[in-house]
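Fill-in record for HPr family phosphocarrier protein.
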Amino acid sequence: MALEAATADPDCDGAAAPQKPRRADEPAPRILPIVNKRGLHARASARFVETVENFDAEVTISRDGMSVGGLSIMGLLMLAASQGTSIEVSASGPDSVAVLDALERLVANRFGEDG
């Protein structure tokens, strides 16, 4: 699996998840509040990626001007999304609505972790 880099600088030569204009047939991005105590840490990021892998969709996660691909655990960690912050999740592809629904449930359920 290729590592997708995260960047807040569009001129960075890393493999950033580009911000593409949303097509009319794509669902609106979802704003997901991070509610678990540890935030989007390694285990939670792994569960996020595992969820994305189950769908035929391209997922992008953004926070504070930084965007990463939904298949990059390291990228998700770089977002530093702690408890009380929010992430914006967008998706395109045949399963875009289904993956957004699944990710919304995952995050709301604290990644299956603490109370």
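KEY FINDING: The two ends are 32 Å apart (CA to CA).
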